[in-house]
Amino acid sequence: MLTEEQIRAVLFYEDLIPAIRQALMDFSAGRVTQPVRTIVPVTAHGGWFAVMPAVYGPVMGAKMVTFYPGNAELKKHTHMAMIQLFCSKTGEPLATMDGRLITEMRTAAVSAVAIDHLAARDAKVLAILGSGVQARSHVRALAGIRSFAEVRVWSRSQANAQQFAGEIGARVTTAEQAVAGADVVLALTSSPVPILKGEWLSPHAMVCAIGAATPDRRELDEETMRGAVVVESREAALKEAGDIVLAGATVTAEIGELLNGAQLDRGNRPAVFKSVGIAVEDIAAAQLVYERLQR
What is the value of pTM for the model shown? Predict the structure, then answer.
């Protein structure tokens, strides 16, 4: 049984990002067995419980994860999880580990992979919409991907925005001011309604949207979703991503397809990476943790 503290001691973005990149490539190449996650609403308490299984090379496993957006007001994490890892050859259990930190870090690592591939090499302005756990993890993950000359922050909580901006040396602005002219835009909120308007975006911008992972929630408006939409899994995104479902958006490519050599038909429009999180990302991260601790 591995605790969050044990995982934190061995899991680092310089190892995790390449592992996630390979997992996404393997997924789109058909080398992963993975159904779309099963989500069970917990309506009485405003949350949901999900099970995310995958078979990936020498290992297989499942993450059991909860999402309770109201936890933010209770000063608790909105996402909590456990991961069970097995040997795919014999079916033997290998490890049970806390999944909260893995979820936090692999989410930011996925974004880092997408931004590294889709954002301009000379990107200098970063806009962050949100000021919570994912905002902080994304800043850490992107440190080795791009060097931004200017970082702008907006949050629905002015106090939280000020605190976060102070931590990273950013400037607090309105959402529109943060996005205008930005090269990379991160949408990292738990908002159920759009907080990013496409009319604010430059055609060269790259948007990375993380917050809305159910079909009834969205962070991006219809105009934003007219960009070139890239996802981890077409099947998962078309079922789970409210940003796509509610806008009737067209998925242009999976990020793994692009990493494997496919070209993105972007035209003169922003690239929009919409992430919902898929099981192979968690299993790849869990395998990395298990191997590090075995050593």
Answer: 0.95
